Amino acid sequence: MGAVADAFDPAFFVPVPDGWFVAVSDIQGSTAAVAEGRHSDINFCAAAMIAGLSNYCGSIPYQFGGDGAAALIPPQHADEARRILARVRRFALRDFDLKLRVGLAPIKSLRDRGTDVLVGRYEPSPGNAYAVFLGGGVELLETSVKERGDDSLFDLCTIPDENGDDAPPDLTGLSCRWTPLTSTRGEMVALVVRGPDHGELYAALKTVTGVDALKAASLKVLKARWPPKGLMREAKARRGTGSLLSWSIKVGIETLLAFLIIKFKIRIGGFDSEGYRREMVENAVDFARSDDMLCLTFDCPGDKIAALEAYLEERHQRGDLHYGLHKSDHAVMTCLVASAVDNQHVHFVDGGDGGYTKAATQMKAQMKAAG
What we know:
The protein has two domains: 4-169, Alpha-Beta Plaits (2-Layer Sandwich); 181-328, no CATH class. It has helices spanning 30-35, 39-57, 78-96, 107-111, 137-145, 151-157, 198-209, 231-238, 244-263, 273-283, 305-317, 355-369; strands at 14-15, 21-28, 62-64, 68-73, 99-106, 118-125, 128-134, 174-175, 181-182, 186-194, 267-268, 271-272, 284-285, 287-290, 293-301, 322-328, 330-339, 344-351. The radius of gyration is 20 Å and the shape is globular. Helix 2 runs antiparallel to helix 3 (78-96) and helix 8 (231-238) crosses helix 9 (244-263). Helices cover 39% and strands 27% of the residues. The strands form five sheets. Strands 8, 9, 13, 17 and 18 form a five-stranded mixed β-sheet that branches. A four-stranded antiparallel β-sheet has the order 3-4-2-5, with helices on both faces. It is of the alpha+beta class.
């Protein structure tokens, strides 16, 4: 599937083979961490799971959810995936003091519990694929990892500390070098919705907001800066067992050179800085769909905010859906770059100042009030 609309068409989804595994992660206490202004750290650690697994397994289906992630793992990589997940968990705790909950379960175990895992492949550009899920299995596993669901599944998917080792995860390509994406229309909206028929909802949201595409990234707002706010995050991700100081200097030099190349539109070898910026906008992933949950981050016209909230509230009152909506003047990106020259890079977008985490908190309160 190459268009966002295809991500809502069941015809594009296929069952994941029984022998495969699902890996999930979730940051415990993300709401409190957001309140402390650590939103970008949360996004970075959530994306670290994707980076670690992708760097070992190669091209695998994955999804970013702001304060967590999900990925499909082929059976031959399951044992090493457990070690990688344990390493990423240790990385998040050691370098960011964040508790990353991780889990890995076979697809068959989720089907045995009455759910399924179907996957769709959203590909904004060739070679940059992003997963969307149906069937309830991914959500069941995420709930169990949070110790709120099936105790037997929690026991099955838990990764004990002894599954890890002292080796650092390979987080090559993980960075956040760009300035926040500032709204040019009014406000950046992070929206989390639980309900049926996401395709109909997505089309209705475009009509209500009056925009052609619910996007956060554009060439107009895509700007580099130096030093980047994420310099120390990248240094921590790349240092391995080396000195954080020496890696901070190295990343500082690399990011300065990259900044100058982009600022002055310099061509070096096969790298075209302006082409790369266009690819970034194309490859920015600002939505996620997993089972009954739809997450979107987009630049919404200021004069349409009230209409958007009224539309969602009306559907909530009718019992059609539950939702949480967070507004900010910006969105943020976490980048995973395999090759800047060959257009192998994706950019995970979340709303500013807490984005999906704050929206999800609102939705949970709404659901609790509704019983």
